[in-house]
Design brief:
single chain; about 180 residues; alpha+beta; Alpha-Beta Plaits; 2 domains; five-stranded antiparallel β-sheet
């Protein structure tokens, strides 16, 4: 396991660094603005002949680089969870025209979908895990939900249109049930 050091850079973001097996020093500056800098650098111990490199990456470029370098453990973990029969984990990005835009998240069970969980709401660079029902959702937010494929689809339809997500009554059921 690689030893990663983390240093907060006030007003900038966070610097993550590690030393490679061959002695190279690598860092990633995760800026608060969303972009990242990939850097190699030298310490006082270096002889001054070390080449220093800095490469600015957009958020998409940083994600692409991470995938090219072998993917992230989070992605692999979510992929493994997605293989559990009956469980779907999906992301819903809120657009301006979506019903949920500007509204409180609400409780999926109160909306007729028991067993659906809003795992987190991602807004910009931050995530709100397990948001409360009064959490206000805005365009650009991404809702991370987990549940059965049918329940996720019903919830996404509600988020888009505002149409009830309550399952229709079983017309084949005997009266009174």
């Amino acid at each position: 396991m690689v030893d990663v050091r983390r240093v907060k850079l006030p007003g900038v973001g966070v610097l993550h660094t590690f030393v490679t097996a061959d002695g190279g020093k690598v860092g990633v500056i995760a800026h608060r603005s969303g972009h990242s800098d990939l850097v190699t650098f030298s310490d006082e111990e270096d002889d001054g002949n070390t080449t220093k490199v800095s490469l600015r990456l957009s958020e998409d470029e940083a994600h692409t680089l991470a995938e090219l370098l072998g993917g992230t453990q989070i992605t692999e973990s979510l992929a493994a969870l997605d293989q559990i029969p009956g469980l779907t984990i999906d992301w819903f990005t809120v657009d301006y025209e979506d019903h949920i835009a500007g509204q409180e998240l609400g409780n999926p069970a109160e909306l007729g979908v028991v067993g659906l969980t809003v795992v987190a709401v991602v807004r910009g660079e931050s995530a709100s895990p397990a948001p409360a029902s009064d959490f206000k959702v805005f365009p650009g937010d991404t809702l991370v939900v987990a549940g059965s494929p049918e329940k996720v689809a019903r919830a996404f339809n509600f988020y888009r249109t505002g149409e009830s997500i309550k399952k229709p009554a079983n017309l084949d059921a005997p009266p009174g049930r």
